Amino acid sequence: MYYVELCQSQQCLEAIIELRYSVLREPWGQSKESAKDDLESNSIHAFIKHNTEIIACGRLQNNGDGIGQVRYMAIDQDFQRKGLGKLILKCLEAEAKKIKLKKLELQARENACEFYKACGYSLEEKTFLLWDLIQHYKMSKLI
User: Fold this and answer.
1) pLDDT tens-place string over residues 41-88
2) Contact 86, 122 (CB under 8 A)
3) What is the C-alpha separation between 1 and 48, in angstroms, rounded?
4) DSSP, res 14
5) Are 71 and 16 in contact (CB under 8 A)?
6) CA 68 – CA 84 distance, rounded (Å)
7) How confident is the model at residue 11 (pLDDT cuts 50, 70, 90)?
8) Which of 75, 79, 67 lies closest to 47 in space, CA to CA?
């Protein structure tokens, strides 16, 4: 059984950023710096551990006007397709409700669109091509 936790320390955040890097950046030759941004300290970070290793994570940021954004969803390759992404997303949605957000948006990679649709997100538009390689789509959900 897996449990979602909220990050409460710098050490935890560093481990989350390491997972983001290994899943979302390193396979495309990108820098570790690209796995984080200036909003880390103002965001809510959810994660799941297996033994002592963080194996799944996601972030919620408040973009203002009742709109939040889900970012940096990453699941260790050995633990994909086990429902961990849904657990992380449900936790972030619950946290969004606690801070009175009304809508969540995200930029989904093309290969993740079906996952987000299954979680109740609607496809809004084709947006950008990350690193000239990975097509993204804006998706949203009223919560």
Assistant:
1) 999 999 999 999 999 999 999 999 999 999 999 999 999 999 999 999
2) no
3) 10
4) H
5) no
6) 21
7) very high
8) 75
Interatomic CA distance for residues 55 and 37, integer angstroms: 20
* Amino acid residing at 110: E
3 secondary structure, DSSP code: -
Place of tokens 């097509």: 135
The contacts of residue 2 (CB under 8 Å, 6+ apart) are: 48, 50, 56, 82, 83, 84, 87
List of domains in the chain:
4-105 (3.40.630.30)
- Maximal CA-CA distance, the chain: 39
Tokens of 22: 């290994």
Beta-bridge partners for 82: none
The residue behind tokens 């408040």 is 62
Which amino acid, residue 53?
A: E
d(CA 112, CA 54): 20
